[in-house]
Amino acid sequence: MTVLVNGARGQGVSPLDRGIHFGDGLFETIACRGGRPRFLTFHLERLISGCERLQIRAPEPELIAGEVCELARDADRAIVKVLVTRGAAVGRGYAAAGKETATRITIRYPWPDEDVSKSHDGVKVCTLSMRLGENPLLAGLKHCNRLEQILARAQWPADIDVSEGLLFSSSGNLVSGTLSNVFIVRGSIVQTPRIDLCGVAGVMRRVVIREMHQAGIRMQECVLRTEDLQEADEMFLTNARIGIWPVRELNSRAILPGPITRRLQEILAPLLEGPRDAA
Amino acid sequence: MTVLVNGARGQGVSPLDRGIHFGDGLFETIACRGGRPRFLTFHLERLISGCERLQIRAPEPELIAGEVCELARDADRAIVKVLVTRGAAVGRGYAAAGKETATRITIRYPWPDEDVSKSHDGVKVCTLSMRLGENPLLAGLKHCNRLEQILARAQWPADIDVSEGLLFSSSGNLVSGTLSNVFIVRGSIVQTPRIDLCGVAGVMRRVVIREMHQAGIRMQECVLRTEDLQEADEMFLTNARIGIWPVRELNSRAILPGPITRRLQEILAPLLEGPRDAA
User: Homologous superfamily of A116-273 in CATH?
Assistant: First the structure.
C-alpha cells in the first residue's frame, strides 16, 4: 500500500482536520489496469463538482490526476482511492470558514483478482432492512458521511454467498446496493433509481447509461419500489471496480442473467480491460 | 489550544483512519469551568453508549475522563472536545473488521465569555429550509457524520443577529437547532422533539429534562410541526455550552421569555456556574 498526504509519504493528518471531525470530504475509488486509471475523467469530474456543491476549495484536477497516474503507473492492477477533505478547521464548530486548505489523501491498494464467476454466473443479493436518510443536498455525492453504509454492512446476513445488499430510502424507494448502483430490466426497458434524494452517482452507472444511449437501449431513471424488483426480468449491479455483476438471486428468488445484461457486459468489456482511458 | 492524539501531543492521525474516510466516530463537546468539566458523567455515558451502538471498541472511560480533567484543570473556562473514531482501517471498504483500535482525540479550545444578553434577553432564531435525513439507527448519536449541519450553517440568513437555525426532518417534523436542542412551552406543558428518527440526545437536554421532572414541571417528548411552533407561548434552546437560551424572536415573530423558561434558568444556574460535577 502506498499512502500520500498532500503528495508526501509518511505524513499524518492534522487532528483538527474537518474530515475527521465531521466527515467533511469526498472520495473516489479508481480501478487501475495496466498502469492506467480507468475512467479518470469521470472520477475527477465528480470529485470537483462534489467539492463545488459542498463549497470545498478543491485541489487542482491536474494535481490529483498526476498523483493517481503516478501511483497507477507501475501496477498491473490497483485500486487508487482519492480523498479530499475541507482541511484543518479554522476555529470550532460546524460552519466552514471558507478559507480552509483542502487535504488530499491518495492511497494505492492492491486489487486482488476478481472472482470471475460473479461476472459470469451472477451474484446473490438480498435486501437490507436499514433505510437510508434522504437529503437532496447530499444526494449523488460520494461524500465521507458513510455511517449508514457501515451500519448496512453490519446487517449483513449469515449467508456469506450474498455479494451485495440492496438499500431503500426512508420513503421506501430503492436506492442502491451498499457499494454499487442497481439496474433492473423489464421487457426491453432498463430502469435505475433516481439519485435526487439519496444515493451515489456512480461512475460506472454513468458509463453504463452512456453506453445504453449509444446502443439504443431504452432506459429510465425513476422511482422504484419493492414490487418493481419483484417484477424484474433481469437485474444487475455496477461499480467502478466490478463493472457489471448480473444478479442471479434476489432474496432466494432466482433471476436469470438475461440478454440486455449480457449485451451491456459485452459492450463494457473492452472499456474495462484495456489500458486506454475510456472516459 | 492543546491537542492530544491517543494521549500524546504533536501527533498526526493515520490517513487510513476510518474517521477521515467515513466519519466513523463520535464526539463530545464538554464545557469546563473553574478547572472542572461540567456534566462529565453524562458526556461519558453518551460517548460509551454511542460506541456500543456503532460497535466501536471504546477506550476506557477512566482514560478519557482523566485526559479531560487534565486538560480542564488549569483553565478557568475551556471547551474540551473528545473525539473517538473506530481507528485505522483494516482493509478497504465500509465494513468494519471489528478488530480496529479506536483513535482518541482530545482538544482543549479557549472558551471566550458568552454574550450574557443571549441568556438574559433571549436570541433570534429562524427556521432553515434544509431537511435532515431520518435514520433511527443514527438518531440520538453525536456522531461524526455532520455534513448536514455544515450545509445548514451555509444556509444561514444574512441577518447576523440570528443566533440559531431550526431544522426539520424530511418528514417535516421539528428536530433541533444546528447546535442545540429546542423546547417549547404551551400553557403549563413543556414539549421537545422526540429523537428517535433524527437529532442528537443533547447532554443539556438530558439535564433540563431531569430538572423538570424533579421540579414537577410537566413535559413531553413528542412530534412537533411548524404549526406547533407558531402556537408556542415560550421557546428555549439548550446545549452543553450555553445552558439555556430563551428565544425572543422566531422568524420575526416576537416571543416573550416566559416564566417556565426563567424558572428553569434559575434551577440550572448553580449547576452551570459551580466547579462541582453536577451530573
Answer: D-amino Acid Aminotransferase, subunit A, domain 2 (3.20.10.10)
